[in-house]
Write a structure and sequence with these properties.
Keywords: ANK repeat, Repeat. By secondary structure, the chain is mostly helical. It contains 15 helices and no strands. It has a domain of about 120 residues: Ankyrin repeat-containing domain (Serine Threonine Protein Phosphatase 5, Tetratricopeptide repeat, Alpha Horseshoe).
Length: about 240
């Protein structure tokens, strides 16, 4: 008997032993299978053995603005992936604001941390994803913790100061980020920006009253660090008028 002619009950039994890609292939063979196997595909994607497919399913649903499907997938047990999905959207998705809006509307915690202690805001800052940072800071239904810190005690401002995105640094400062936050190594955003040669960010931090005399655990100030790395532009800013 041809497979397409098998009774629904047998097809469903067979599908329970297939991976999500295999079920998806079957689903595409006919309209009958498309209707029959869609719930089976969702169940398989939500199975712990296929967690990568579950993350992909919920991410795709969110990026397609499918609120009901995201809620359904979360209810099926995919809450365990919600932080990773939000972080991915904040740092890698060019349409991140649409995706994040759906995820947040479905109740995903905007301050959820990964195993390094980073939140979506920190991931967006690290990826220089300015639109995602602005969205998280301004989304009306949530209040992100602007000074949430990772396992290195580094905030989004410290990350942005080091990676060199002046616009993100400005947005974070405008939303109350602590300009002199000290990380685990004794580094402030000013010291981090100085170490990377970001003279415009150094100027912006000083304009926002960053402590120019702060020294890290090794006794180095921002001037010491900039000079040691040969960042002449930063040295000029630090020694110049303010």
């Amino acid at each position: 008997m041809p497979f397409l002619a098998l009774p629904n009950e047998i097809v469903l039994q067979i599908s329970k032993f297939q991976s999500p890609p295999d079920i998806n292939s079957l689903l595409k063979t006919s309209r009958r299978f498309a209707a029959l196997l869609k719930p089976e595909l969702i169940d398989a994607a939500c199975c712990a053995d296929y967690s990568s497919y579950g993350k992909l399913a919920i991410y795709k649903a969110a990026s397609c603005n499918d609120y009901d499907m995201v809620k359904h997938l979360l209810a099926k047990g995919l809450q365990r992936h919600e932080r990773a999905i939000l972080h991915d959207a904040a740092s890698t998705d060019p349409n991140s604001t649409t995706t994040m809006e759906i995820l947040l509307a479905c109740g995903i915690d905007p301050d959820g941390r990964n195993d390094r202690g980073r939140t979506a805001l920190s991931h967006a800052a690290a990826a220089k994803a300015g639109k995602a940072v602005e969205f998280l800071l301004k989304y009306p239904q949530i209040k992100v913790t602007v000074d949430s810190y990772d396992s290195d005690r580094r905030t989004a401002l410290g990350i942005a100061a080091k990676t060199g995105n002046e616009r993100i640094v400005g947005r974070l400062l405008a939303n109350g980020a602590e300009v002199d936050w000290v990380d685990k190594r004794g580094l402030t955003p000013l010291l981090l920006a100085s170490s990377e040669g970001h003279d415009r960010i150094v100027r912006l931090l000083l304009y926002n009253n960053a402590n120019i005399n702060w020294a890290d655990h090794g006794g180095r100030t921002s001037l010491h660090i900039a000079a040691a790395f040969g960042h002449e532009g930063v040295v000029k800013v630090l020694l110049g008028p303010r």
